[in-house]
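Q: My labmate handed me this sequence with no annotations at all. I'd like to see what the chain might look like in three dimensions before we decide whether it's worth expressing. Could you predict it?
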Amino acid sequence: MCRGEVHALLGENGAGKSTLMNVLVGLVRPDAGALELAGRPVDLSGWWPAAALRAGVGMVHQHSSLAPALSAVENLAFGRLEPGWLYRPRRERARVAALTQRFGLDAPLDPPVEDLSVGQRQRVEILRALAGGAQVLVLDEPTAALTPGETRALFPTLRRLAGAGRAVIFISHKLEEIRDVADRVTVLRRGRAVATVPAAEADAAALGRLMLGRDVPVLERPPAVGGGPALEIRGLCAPGLREGSRLRSIDLVVRRGEIVGVAGIDGNGQRELEEVLAGVRRASAGSLRVGGREVPLRARALRAAGVAHLSGERETAGLVAGMSVAENLILKGSYDDRRFFRWGRLDRSAAAAAARAAAERFDIRPPDPDADIATLSGGNAQKVAVARELDGDPPVLVAVNPTRGLDVGSARFVHERLLGLRARGGAILLVSTELDEVLALADRRVALVAGRVVAIPEGADRGEIGAILLGREAA
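A: Here is what I predict for the chain of 475 residues:
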């Protein structure tokens, strides 16, 4: 790639994008090949992260690596301390403020970054890379957790960086975004570069074919089955991480064989609603009924009542790194589950056999029950979570951002499984910040705005729904 270019990298989960970029930033030692920066060959035998930073290669990872309790200024200073170097807050703040003005990366500098939005934290990550002198900037799935507005604000920043002579590598699964921001796109498939094309000349269907090696079929969505109430939420209130995300008297009903979609901009109570329905956040008021019976809002009671939970935070709340695929598949089981536990002891051979069966049924790769879940690609890790939550066809599934960070093929796989559960009479509460996902899957739609459920009129177009999500219709 060239200076002044935004070059997109596209491929399925597991195609090799992250591995390739980890070679570039010195985290992975290649088996063979060559690397050149600014026309000069790099000695890969001594190529490690510090060498990459000195050479001007910076990376913004998909998941934040900032210290949450430190401010943006402190995070930018952290890591560049040298013997005899003194931290002077005013000088460092002035340095960071100059960077924000130069690159148009507006972000609060003084609050702890844990209090910032996802988009603001991402801008701090980019600032940190630029402060280190990055001439080649890698952004790994930068829009995966951004709101539409934050995504739109990011693209001019990338173009400004390219205009200033930086080379920007943009990794994404979102085909339309790539066409909007990139100059060229390279497609990886199973560890090989299969094509490099001008982004403006490649439509989404063509990029999808290059990425998957086949056409993406139209998602078949049979009519809703219909049935009585499976999940009833009445007057639910709960404290929030901030005032705008506090849950305020939420009423929702999901019927058997139905998907109810909850659309919304991140930070309007999605996390709080998820945690209450998972039994890990205490509600201050309200009740929940499953199949007509009231159920306490506690994790074990909800699980016993048949409420499955597909977490929107796969890495921190859905799966456990360091545990195997087999262990993650039975993670939410009980010691009285005689399939896997005998006299309080885990039957590892039974767990491994169940994992192999799940790998075949859900196309989990590699199909190794002993593989550490952290070594799987995002798409395959999500398949493990889906396999666990759909085990036994639960009567109710709460699915939160189920395809965040997934490629086209993996997202389609998850959508098909959700529709399959619906066809078998399952009730699904789909909470998603991806409006397209809600429109594609939901039989009924509502919005979550500042912790309140707001009706979305039948037949509302995207503009009308957008106005509701921004609170213009919420009183």
